[in-house]
Amino acid sequence: MSRGPRTFHLLFLGDKDVGITSLIEHTPIDYAGEGDWGLGIEFYQQNVRLQEGPARLVMFELGREDSFATVARNFKRDCGVILVYDVTRPTTLANVLDTFSRLKPHLPEVIPRILVANKADLEDSREVDTPAGFAAASAIDAEYLETSVVDKDRENIQLVLTDIAEAIAHVDFDEGDSQDLE
Q1: Average pLDDT for residues 123-141, to the nearest whole number?
Q2: Distance between CA 83 and CA 102 in Å, rounded?
Q3: Cα(91)–Cα(85) distance, rounded to whole angstroms?
Q4: What is the pLDDT of residue 24?
Q5: Residue 125 and which of 21, 35, 118, 168 are 20 to 30 A apart at CA?
């Protein structure tokens, strides 16, 4: 008997207007909705094919900080965090790192994470350079990717989702061992 796709939960963190919704909506979404929790939580689903087989990604975009702890309590296995900042606004990087540091105690120690530098196409307005992004990602043991929804191929947007899903598939949440994101 064949088993259905594994379900992975992805938590998107970032300030308002860093482009989280645009990133999500520029991937082939199978379902979008808003939770009935009254906490400003939107969620999306996407089916992807990984090396291990099919997977369903359930993505949560949190609109208010008071919803973080509520959702994080449910992130115990098969989950990952995507931290998004706007390369034209340095405060968004500092804020997402601060938010993650406050949320981290509520998450599994081995949770895969990716730091996403969004709006990378805005080179003339860029205030956070690539080396600073890599350094921030290294400081929180995260992979680093740059994205832009205006790039015609948008390959890094889908790469964010497949990379973190592949990483989640290789984490033993019971043992606490993780394979690094590559």
Answers
A1: 96
A2: 13
A3: 9
A4: 81
A5: 21
User: Is residue 177 assigned to a domain?
Assistant: no
pLDDT given for residue 52 in this prediction: 84
Q: Which domain holds residue 100?
A: 6-169
Q: How far apart are CA 25 and CA 182, in angstroms?
A: 25
Domain count, the chain: 1
Token match 């406050």: residue?
102
pTM, two decimal places: 0.85
Confidence band, pLDDT 50/70/90 cuts, at residue 63: low
3-class secondary-structure state, position 92: helix
Least confident of 7-16, 21-30, 108-117, 165-174: 21-30
CATH number, domain of 71, equals 3.40.50.300
Residues 98, 106: Cα–Cα separation, whole Å = 14
Q: How many residues does the chain have?
A: 182
Cα(46)–Cα(29) distance, integer angstroms: 5
Q: Say what the alpha-carbon torsion angle 156, 162, 163, 167 is, to the nearest 10 degrees.
A: 170
At a CB cut-off of 8 Å and minimum separation 6, what does 174 contact? Answer: 77
Q: How confident is the model at residue 25 (pLDDT cuts 50, 70, 90)?
A: confident
